[in-house]
Amino acid sequence: MKGEPRTLIAVHYADLNGFKSINDSYGHPVGDALLSAVGQRITRVIRSSDMAARLGGDEFAVVQYGIETEAHAQYLAERLVTVIAQPFQIEGHTLNVSMSLGYIVREAGPDGLDHLLGLADKALYASKRGAGRVTRYTPPESGDERAVA
């Protein structure tokens, strides 16, 4: 209805840069402890109404529900990248990783979470190609969402 605020959802897809070398250099127990510490930092940054999950390997997703503006998603994306860039103390080692992140913002509606994760993943790959550490998914001009962000 006219005048009612939009209800937006944001899906963030992130992975760690430098994790493989830490896992190879310090072993899987240290790598596992680092992944756990990353998950804890993510959980401390998000709201209680948001959802975070480790998708596998060094990939994580965050879903923000009920945000009012796209700026809220951009702020969280930048905050996550900043928080993860701080050194970790794991089993006597100071470890540094960074995070690449892609996200999409949509009005709450019929799009399934798998679809939104796929689009956020495309934005993540754009981040990893040098477009920046945080990339918002923007549909291609053709309107075909199968195209790369």
Task: Characterize this entry briefly.
The chain has 149 residues and is an alpha+beta fold. It is 40% helix and 30% strand. The chain has one domain (8-136): 2-Layer Sandwich (Alpha-Beta Plaits).
Would you write up a description of this structure?
The chain has 149 residues and is of the alpha+beta class. It has one domain (8-136): 2-Layer Sandwich (Alpha-Beta Plaits), CATH 3.30.70. Helix content is 40%, strand content 30%. The chain has four helices and seven strands; from the N terminus they run E-H-H-E-E-H-E-E-E-H-E. The chain has helices at 19-26, 28-45, 70-84, 113-131; strands at 8-17, 51-56, 59-67, 88-90, 93-95, 98-107, 134-136. The strands form two sheets. A five-stranded mixed β-sheet has the order 2-3-1-6-7. Strands 4-5 form a two-stranded antiparallel ribbon. The radius of gyration is 16 Å and the shape is elongated. The chain starts with 7 loop residues before the first strand and ends in a 13-residue tail after the last strand. The model has no long low-confidence stretch (mean pLDDT 90).
